[in-house]
Every structure is written in structure tokens, then in C-alpha cells.
Predict the 3D structure of the following.
Amino acid sequence: MKKIILPTLLLAVILSSCVSTKKYKKKVAELQSMDSSYQKVHHELDICLNDKEQKSEKVKGLENELAYLKSISNNLLQQLNDLSIITNSQAESIKKSLENINTKDIYIKGLQKEMSRKDSLNMALVLNLKGALKDVNDEDIEINVEGSAVFISISDKMLFKSGSYEISEEAKSVLSKVADVIKAQPKIQFMVEGHTDNKPIYKGQIKDNWDLSVLRATSVVRTLQKDYGIEPNRMIAAGRGEYLAVASNDTEEGKSKNRRTRIVILPELDQFFKLLETK
């Protein structure tokens, strides 16, 4: 805005020629007062105009910031919409995954239940065997559970004479008690293992400890079948020779422990493998 400058001097000259000095001075004073008021109002107007311009620029800046925030908000909304679409497209897959997890959980619980049942049966079998053989010397027979199988280890001095594979009369008493327990569990199968020490043997048809261990195992199997009525399809005869020693063969005591016949009552593998089949 342009400033309006009053021609004070010119007006003073005119007034001095037309009016008295007193009136002149009065008019000059009034003019000066008006000019002072004008300058004050003009200054205030400039301040107002500058303040308005500053506020206008601030408003413009805020409007630009608001537009930027709106743009970011729109982008976020679009991303949320895209995420919602992805989630919907995968919902069926997630549902199937949860169903598979539930199925596997049921399957695992079934295995655990079956294994627990098997452990219970093995424990019952051990208790029955120990009850049946309670009058047999603990040094000559040992019954325990390893993994999922029950092991009955009988020393050879109870079953056979040295270097022989013929069953002794004392041995038949022990085998009859074992047979009674096994016959009460018609679904179980078992393996008879022959074990020897490392002393070489050459006697008749016996060529080495392999032969001796196998012949002793088959002698036990035949006795269980022919004398005590165990079905042959439930039994396996095996010879381990000297190669699964439980003690050192450097001492007589160790050799005596290694000369043994072991009856291994096998787990019900067919039923267990059925559980492992893919559903």
C-alpha cells in the first residue's frame, strides 16, 4: 500500500495568508495530529498484512503436509486390502494344515498309546517269567527288558554239557516253565540265540563256535516244539558264536558268562508297522 503524504507546508502557507496566526497554529496542530494517527494506522495495517501473509504460508504448508499424510494413508489402506486378499486366498491351505496337524497329533497319541500298551505287556511278561522261575538260581538265569523286547538269558552250564548241544534234564525243567508263560501269549514270537566263548572247538560235525551256537539254538527250539507244544512258526533259531560277548574272554568267569542261550521275545512288529503306515 502506498503512503499518502499530506502537503503540510503548502497548506500552512495558504492558511497563513488567509487566517490569523492563532487559527493557523491550531490547524497545524490538528494536521500534525491527523498525520500521526495516519502513520500509526498505516503501520498497524502493514503488520496485519504481513501477519496474514505469514499465516497464509503456514496454512499452505499445513495443507501440503495433510495431502502427504493422506497419500501415505491411502497406500497403507491398499496394503491392508492386499494382505486381506492374500489371507483369504490362503485360508483353505491354512485350514488343511491345521487338519493335518490334528491328524498327526492323533496319530502320535495312538503310537504312544500302543507303545505304552506294549511296555505294559512286556512288564507283565517279565513278572510272569520271574514268578515261574523264582526257584531257579539267579546266577543261571537273567530276565530283563531292553528297548521293546524281553530277554531271557540262560547259562549254558544249566542247558548243556561242555562242548555239547544236547539238552540236559535240568534244562528241560527250566524250558517247560518258560514254555508255559510263552504259550499263554499266543501272539508273541521269539528268537533263540546261541552264544559261546572264544575257545575254538572241533568235535564231530562241529567245525567252530558258529556251528556250536547254532546247534544249541536249534536244540532248544526243537525241545520247545516237540516236548512243550510251541508252534514252530513262532520261533527263530540263530547262532551268534563268540561275537556278541557280554564279558571279557580273558578270564574263566568271563567265558562262563559268554556261554549262554538267550531267548528274545520280539515285539509285535506287524501291529506296530500297521500304525506306521501313512494314513
